Amino acid sequence: MQMYLARTRVRAIATVAIAMMNIGGIGCQGIDDPQGRLHGDSFSISATGTIPVSPVVDQSFVGAVNAGSNINECCRYIAQTFTAGLTGKLIGVNIDVHSPWNSPLPLRISIRPTINGRPAAAILGEVVLDAAEAALDFYIEFPEPISIIDEQRYAIVVDYVGAPPTGGGQAQGIWRGATGNPYPRGDMFASRADGVTWGYKSEEVDQRFQTHVVPGQFASALWIQRVKTDGARDWEHFEIAGEHFLAVANRRELAGFGVNSRIYKWDGFKFAEIQTIATNGATDWEHFEIAGEHYLAVANYSSNITSRETPSRIYRWNGAEFVEIQAIMTNGAADWEHFEIAGQHYLAVANSWGPVYRRVHSRIYRWNGAEFVEIQAIMTDGATDWEHFEIAGQHYLAVANYHSGYTPVVASHIYRWNGSTFGDRQSIVTFGATDWEHFEIDGRHYLIVANSDDGTSRNVYSRIYRWTGRVFRFEQAILTNGAQEWEHFETNNGHYLAVANSRDGGGYNVDSIIYRWNGSAFVEVQPVETKGAHDWEYFEMNGKPYLAIANFWDGAAFHLDSPVYRLQP
Prior knowledge:
Blueprint: E1 7-8, E2 13-14, E3 56-61, E4 67-71, E5 77-83, E6 88-95, E7 97-98, E8 107-115, E9 118-119, E10 125-128, E11 140-148, E12 153-160, E13 173-178, E14 188-191, E15 200-202, E16 206-207, E17 209-215, E18 222-230, E19 232-240, E20 243-250, E21 258-266, E22 271-280, E23 282-290, E24 293-300, E25 309-317, E26 322-331, E27 333-341, E28 344-351, E29 359-367, E30 372-381, E31 383-391, E32 394-401, E33 409-417, E34 422-431, E35 433-441, E36 444-451, E37 459-467, E38 472-481, E39 483-491, E40 494-501, E41 509-517, E42 522-531, E43 533-541, E44 544-551, E45 559-566
Antiparallel strand pairs: 1-2, 3-17, 4-13, 5-12, 5-14, 6-11, 6-17, 7-13, 8-9, 8-10, 8-12, 13-16, 14-15, 18-45, 19-20, 20-21, 21-22, 23-24, 24-25, 25-26, 27-28, 28-29, 29-30, 31-32, 32-33, 33-34, 35-36, 36-37, 37-38, 39-40, 40-41, 41-42, 43-44, 44-45
């Protein structure tokens, strides 16, 4: 017996049919869920039919059959979602697809992430069989392992390569399953034509499947949300009363620097916008807390195309939103750095433009209980970043000098606190330096500089330095492409560095790279597609690690997606 189900799409109303066997009382929902493709290729090879010895069965429904979904009758794509129980590499699946019509077409199986529980358009891995069928005891191996994360929902999606238009009599196969919600950690979905809009959902029907996972390996970054941004230069994560927030610094749009920056709050599924703040070429947000009060400082780069002198602003959380409490005049402000010494709170601003050239004072301010007041001015050369760190009770500030006005080959400096001011401690020649990142591994202190330009090329070595007890000495060089920022983070699997690459000789659509510490050096573990990237932000929510990337410019537009990724714990 066949039952025909109707559904309503979000933007149009249409009555179509999904052919099922012995199913009753199933409701359907309509939703448009257009999503982009993850970094990486899809694959088309034959399955081996042999299960490797190392994986384990993770998720499974192999119970008795009393239903099935016709593939390519109502809908070209049929999906079964599942919730991973293990973090690791998904290397294969079993499904139960039968073709009573002896279709000559090859069956395609793909693994996709989900958005709000529904299959996304992104394809994590794909395989095409030599046949139209795949019995439940036939193991289907993917050509490359697919990184998955525990408690994250994914979708097994099937369709036929070269299938005719859907309709009555066009079914090529049946994915067999059962009613009664036998697999409560996933649902059945169907997409009529494009695999992007998933109009059908049944929580009562599940199709037979198994997943095979090699646990405990590094899982690649999988995006969970793509946020529309305007020349994004920075993400800042912070917590208030157990709630998670992200603030994006939007620098510009095609019309100029007067563009709003935005604050988002995690609602349990995504980061939802809660506040818009007018900014002027915003390049950085800095969150900090003083006496239980939460603050955000924004570095405003420019109010118009000709002048870099513009006020940067400090905001305080009032319980519902951030309200301005102070404006500080800055000159092409590129970064704020908050730090604390002996109970006193400080802010350092990196000013990148002087009245004529790049040589300009960057400034340090101290909180007096009501506002920040200047305590020191330090001459800098197109400063783009301050990094505060502490070694053996001593406080340091490293400045990244980008350009002298004549050349990007310029000394950046490390300063040490003497009790009242910061004094110059060490100079390091840098090449269009845009960022310093301090981190510690096994009690050793490191600094890595993002070098972006040597005057002739954007393909420049960024460099890692290790503290010897007196100075920082060169340790490792990593070739980068217009590097704008380094982000260090640590998970159960070790230490990582993520670089935001902004451009190479071919343009702005260049991969940013994640590296892992192997005990003696950082080695590449994953490229991520980015567009003029300027910042990585690492954070954790509910014990799970995340990364957000700020995409600035793709060579034609500033209005771009800046994704948030979920990582392996």
